[in-house]
Design a protein that fits this description.
alpha/beta
């Protein structure tokens, strides 16, 4: 039986299935931290910064489908959570944030570390944020926060003044007027649209002659159904970045990523299709979808609020993607004319040769594309791959071939730097037997990834293996922003903001007792991956790469080309090197290596 509110909080979390909480201590949560020491059901994972705790809770939700939980003290600790919580909010992940507050009697007095926490969290946790002021509240505050986080795939927040945490627990509120008696009972509901709606959507898809499918994060569990629909309709499948693992990349009709980070086959398919089936995706860039009026559209999404937001769909099916596709499949007619899909297959086959040619181009010293190209055939079965935000995301999106059974994620909606290392840590806690690979740029690594290595060094022995690789692109440049300055702003590289200090990432890993490997020769890239993946302890694989290799979009708009040349004429310090690299990339697009 729980003695204090802090004890009851952890007991109730355990009843909701929580086995791990990511956080950082502070006197605003002393009562909760004391309760951790009096129980053994829930593990407290100490991070280096509260932002990392929120990232880890987000990753836990992404990879397990469970609600992630993070914990922070009052004032600055609570403020530090926000970026990671916005990552959860924008990627629609269920996370409960538990934060401390000053004593009830001091609230409103401009007390030290007093922050208006309900107001602070009102946007990021807009579905539910409340403060406990009476022990009899705590049960229903926890129950509602968890149910809403799970069912709405949203961030919720409970605030605990530090004096409330040590009050006597009230597991069973008194039976009287004004009392709320909540429960954990399981919830089931139908996630399949009506038969009439399914028939109407099937009619649109059956009438299409050039069907394109776009799969997102909401379709990650619908792999078999997506493949079957594509086979029946003779369609191709493009993938939003969060949906990279929805279907494997070794299928000949899978065109890969879409958008600026996307592939030429995805671009061509969207430009030429007459019917679009969007499944579980909130892909934001409408300019990379069919032009308005070009294609009829059907969208499948669990949330009606996102229906027809990115494209004017003719029909929307609101339901779970897998169950909806299963119900839709018997209504679809197999297309006898396979020319559309045959063209997509030929385009995809050619594109992989283009990427191979680009990856093998010379650079100074290492072409970053080669780092990712060499990783693909060496990915362990069932591994988890996480990407950070930056130029590494470009190569991850295009060059990494995901196979069935693997899991992947990035910060999609927020696209924040610094997520990959905490994502990897959370993935390793959730699946200690799996290989986990984090793909990080040096900007994100210096932002908070270096500190994340300390957490890895602290906890990896309990995982029972060293199957964790953090690959760092050391190009000494905030590379994605540098290229954005050129091709979007028409401005030359501003060295004061863009040049990164050099840092010995591999040596630092060794200092922490991890393995560190530094690669500065293209011929050593493959062997570097093999050594890192075979390591008996977590490994930092430092790849010294060329910042001048351009992340060419699948189709370069005239406006971007003009801006690039404008930046060069203004005196870009790396003008000659970037022009040389751009010519090599373009050549491979025109003349890819021949098939074996």
């Amino acid at each position: 039986m729980a003695d204090t509110v802090g004890d009851f909080l952890l007991q109730r979390l355990g009843e909701w299935g929580v086995r791990r909480v990511y956080g950082y201590p502070g006197d605003g949560i002393n009562g909760i931290m004391g309760a951790f020491g009096r129980q053994e059901t829930i593990e407290f994972i100490q991070v280096r910064h509260e932002e990392m705790a929120a990232f880890m809770a987000t990753a836990h939700a992404k990879f397990t489908g469970e609600v992630g939980v993070c914990l922070a003290t009052s004032g600055p600790g609570a403020v530090h959570l926000l970026n990671g919580l916005y990552d959860a909010k924008l990627d629609h992940q269920g996370v409960v944030a538990i934060v401390g507050q000053q004593k009830r009697m001091s609230i409103g007095s401009d007390y030290q570390q007093e922050v208006d926490l309900p107001a602070l969290f009102k946007d990021v946790a807009h579905e539910y944020v409340h403060m406990a002021t009476d022990p009899a509240q705590v049960r229903h505050l926890i129950d509602r926060a968890f149910r809403i986080a799970k069912e709405e795939r949203a961030v919720t927040c409970i605030i605990f003044p530090n004096d409330v945490q040590d009050l006597e627990a009230v597991p069973r509120p008194p039976r009287e007027h004004g009392t709320v008696v909540s429960g954990i009972g399981a919830l089931t509901r139908s996630h399949v649209p009506s038969q009439q709606a399914l028939e109407q959507a099937a009619r649109i898809l059956n009438e299409g002659k050039k069907v394109a499918i776009l799969a997102g994060a909401g379709a990650l569990h619908a792999t078999d159904e997506l493949i079957e629909v594509a086979d029946i309709l003779g369609a191709g499948i493009a993938k939003a970045l969060l949906g990279k693992a929805a279907v494997p990349d070794d299928l000949p009709f899978v065109t890969g990523a879409i958008g600026l980070l996307g592939t030429k086959p995805s671009h061509d398919m969207m430009s030429e299709c007459d019917t679009l089936l969007m499944v579980g995706s909130n892909f934001p860039y409408s300019e990379h979808l069919p032009k308005e009026g070009q294609a009829r559209g059907v969208q499948i999404d669990i949330d009606a609020r996102r229906a027809s937001v990115r494209y004017p769909m003719e029909f929307n099916l609101i339901g779970d993607s897998r169950e909806t596709l299963r119900a839709l499949i018997p209504l679809l007619l197999r297309k006898t004319d396979r020319q559309w899909q045959d063209d997509i297959r030929a385009n995809v086959e050619r594109w992989w040769r283009v990427l191979e040619g680009r990856a093998m181009n010379d650079a100074n010293p290492i072409n970053p594309q080669r780092v990712f190209w060499e990783l693909s055939p060496r990915l362990p079965d069932g591994c988890i791959v996480v990407g950070d935000s930056g130029s590494a995301t470009n190569w991850y999106a295009r060059d990494v071939k995901i196979r069935r059974g693997m899991m992947t994620s990035v910060s999609g909606g927020l696209a924040t730097m610094g997520c990959a290392v905490p994502y990897a840590i959370a993935a390793k806690f959730a699946y200690p037997d799996r290989h986990v690979i984090a793909l990080v740029g040096d900007g994100a690594m210096q932002m908070n990834g270096i500190n994340g290595l300390i957490t890895i060094a602290k906890y990896w022995p309990r995982w029972g293996n060293g199957k964790l690789v953090v690959m760092v692109l050391n190009n000494r440049d905030l590379n994605l922003v540098t290229w954005e300055e050129r091709v979007m702003g028409g401005n030359p590289k501003f060295e004061s903001s863009q040049v990164m200090p050099d840092f010995p990432y591999a040596q630092y890993a060794q200092l922490l007792g991890l393995k560190g490997i530094r690669i500065d020769s293209p011929d050593a890239v493959a062997a570097g991956w093999e050594a890192a993946l075979a390591s008996d302890r977590p490994c930092v694989l430092e790849m010294v790469t060329d910042p001048h290799v351009p992340p060419l979009p699948p189709d370069v708009p005239a406006k971007q080309a003009a801006a690039y040349f404008k930046a060069l004429l203004k005196g870009d310090p790396d003008a000659l090197a970037t022009v040389r690299a751009s010519i090599k990339e373009t050549w491979e697009s025109w003349f890819p290596p021949r098939k074996d």
